[in-house]
Amino acid sequence: MANGLVIAAGASLGDSLFLIVTFILLLILVKHFAWGPVVKMMDQRAKKISDDLDGAATSRQQAEKMAAQRQSELKNSKSEALQIVNTAKENGEKRRQEILTAAQNDAAAVKVKAREDAEQARTEALNSARSDVAQISVDIAEKMIGKELNAADQKDLIDSYIKGLTTADETR
């Protein structure tokens, strides 16, 4: 029995030794052929994830920066639009004042022209009336006196009559 144990123990020791050597050899082969590529692949994966996270953070920062820039541009656009509207209002008000002033000036010019025309017509009417009155008075004087007046007498008579008309016209 003891021999059987030694043989069994020897076989067992040989088997164990074979298994240990095979296991170590297998570990070396796995380390050389599988572990290196797996670790390399895991490192690459970790680096890719890290780069993706950094890229996402950078993209988020750029997006926030662009959002702030758009907000600023929107405020500037609103300010510019308000400025354009105010400028247009001011220009419109200036133009309205110019038109109003021009219309008032034109109205004043028309009034002055109308007064001048009325004065001209009045003067012409008075001159015509004076002429007619002078002729009528000469005709009446000729009939009353019975003779023709000479030019000097006629002029004196007309001047005195016109003075009478002018003073009568001024008293109205």
Automatic annotation (TrEMBL):
It is a single-pass membrane protein. It holds the Pfam family ATP-synt_B. Gene3D superfamilies: 6.10.250.1580. GO terms for molecular function: proton-transporting ATP synthase activity, rotational mechanism; proton-transporting ATPase activity, rotational mechanism. SUPFAM superfamilies: F1F0 ATP synthase subunit B, membrane domain (SSF81573). The keyword Protein biosynthesis does not apply. GO terms for cellular component: endomembrane system; plasma membrane; proton-transporting ATP synthase complex. Keywords: ATP synthesis, Cell membrane, CF(0), Hydrogen ion transport, Ion transport, Membrane, Transmembrane, Transmembrane helix, Transport. It is found in: Cell membrane; Endomembrane system. The chain crosses the membrane at residues 6-30. InterPro entries: ATP_synth_B-like_membr_sf, ATP_synth_b/b'su_bac/chlpt, ATP_synth_F0_bsu_bac, ATP_synthase_B_chain. It comes from the Bacteria. F-type ATPases have 2 components, F(1) - the catalytic core - and F(0) - the membrane proton channel. F(1) has five subunits: alpha(3), beta(3), gamma(1), delta(1), epsilon(1). F(0) has three main subunits: a(1), b(2) and c(10-14). The alpha and beta chains form an alternating ring which encloses part of the gamma chain. F(1) is attached to F(0) by a central stalk formed by the gamma and epsilon chains, while a peripheral stalk is formed by the delta and b chains. PANTHER family: ATP SYNTHASE SUBUNIT B, ATP SYNTHASE SUBUNIT B', CHLOROPLASTIC. Belongs to the ATPase B chain family. F(1)F(0) ATP synthase produces ATP from ADP in the presence of a proton or sodium gradient. F-type ATPases consist of two structural domains, F(1) containing the extramembraneous catalytic core and F(0) containing the membrane proton channel, linked together by a central stalk and a peripheral stalk. During catalysis, ATP synthesis in the catalytic domain of F(1) is coupled via a rotary mechanism of the central stalk subunits to proton translocation. Component of the F(0) channel, it forms part of the peripheral stalk, linking F(1) to F(0). This is ATP synthase subunit b. It comes from Lapidilactobacillus dextrinicus DSM 20335.
